Amino acid sequence: MDYDLVIVGGGLAGSSVGAAMVANGMRVLIIEREVEFRDRIRGEGMLPWGVAEARELGIYQPLLDSCAIETRWWTAPDDNRDLVETTPSRAGCLNFYHPEMQHRLLDHAVAAGAELLRPAEVVHVCLGPSPTVVARWNGVERRISAHLVVGADGRGSRVRAWAGFPVRRDPQCFTAVGTLYRGLALPDDAVQFVPNPETQRLSIIFPISGGRFRTYFVFEHGTRPPLSGRKDQRTFVEESVAAGASADWFRGGEPVGPLASFDAPDTWADHPYRNGVVLVGDAAAASDPCFGCGLSLTLRDVRVLRDHLSATPDWCAAADAYAEAHDRYFHTLHRIHAWYGDLWYRGGAEADQLRARALPRIAEDPARLVDFIALGPERRSRAAAHVRRGLTLAKGNAFAADHQARPAKLDP
């Protein structure tokens, strides 16, 4: 069983790579372990810069036709942003229930011509000019050779470990608590984004079709106990309201999914290619989900890898070029997120001093904030579409109204 690509993992990253490379005439095998995709309480809002990648990869319309909705508005206190009119991609957020997205995209890849082993467990990957994957399927181990092995198996990637990639991890992080509601008193064409720098809390709600809403509450790790299970449902609502969400949103709403907390540090492998194995998506770099860029970053990986593999028959050189590009855009995004985290969500005297210096100047000129919602890791766009505002400043203005000190400019 010889393939051009053997892809380990059939989620967003793996299915998108598979469909893209089959379209370029490659023989592709996807190996997926799970019989049914489960609700992991994350990864259901794709920002406009990721929607542009989805369009480029040809998966935007299949998702929209099957399981996704596009939300045009980004709503925050005293701000209702039209994403279509204020982003270079002229796109809103693409939102979906994550297990449905995985199912639809894997079907899409198979329909395009990718082969699938499912359920099958990869038990080892051997590196080299012709790397091999050892997979257990129907109780039998099979050795499968490829020109390139793609590790698309998520944050805890076993492919990454077998290939010997050192993993780096942010020492400080935030904690996100998420759950799924049906019937909130909210429109289905707007993301609700409520940051609160006074309390270093965030409430964010994504409509995901079918009257369902994925709701999150975010705080700095260690500043309060995590929440978990049905017993903490009321506390979750109370904490969301304390962050600035409206209690009216939740009246009449019904929780219809699990409630869980998860820590959200960035984790990454520098230069995610070595000796026949390339990493994409969370296996290459898992972006803090509190900033909502993980899905978009995954599709950037897929598109950049596709472009390099399609440009030359030398796949080693192509994968190296992808890894170099990945390091550039991931670390740019990582730096932007660190600035936002320090400004909005960190506690302590140093963070308070930063807000006291920065927020008044940001209120004067919101263009000081990099608009990662629209641009991701890109700094510039055409003048007509460049949004001269970042996150909502309403609460920040109230917090910093009495402070006049000059801040350092928050720009890469």
State the distance separating the first and last CA atoms.
Answer: 47 Å
> How many strand elements?
22
Instruction: Quickly give the CATH architecture of the largest domain.
Output: 3-Layer(bba) Sandwich
Q: Give the overall shape.
A: globular
Major sheet, described briefly? 8 strands, mixed
Overview of the molecule:
The chain has 412 residues and is an alpha+beta fold. The chain has two domains: 2-70 and 93-168 and 267-336, FAD/NAD(P)-binding domain, CATH 3.50.50.60; 174-263, Alpha-Beta Plaits. Helix content is 35%, strand content 25%. The chain is built from 13 helices and 22 strands. It has helices at residues 12-23, 48-57, 60-66, 83-86, 98-112, 158-162, 233-243, 247-250, 294-311, 315-344, 349-364, 372-375, 394-400, and strands at residues 2-8, 28-31, 45-46, 69-71, 73-76, 79-82, 93-95, 115-117, 121-126, 132-137, 140-151, 168-169, 174-182, 190-196, 201-207, 212-220, 254-255, 260-263, 267-268, 273-274, 277-279, 285-286. Strands 1, 2, 8, 9, 10, 11, 20 and 21 form an eight-stranded mixed beta sheet that branches. Strands 5, 6, 13, 14, 15, 16, 17 and 18 form an eight-stranded mixed beta sheet that branches. The longest helix is centred in the C-terminal third of the chain and has 30 residues, at 315-344. It starts with a strand and ends in a 12-residue tail after the last helix. The model is unreliable at 380-412 (pLDDT under 50).
Structure, briefly:
This protein is α+β, with helices and mostly antiparallel strands and 412 residues long. 35% of the residues lie in helices and 25% in strands.
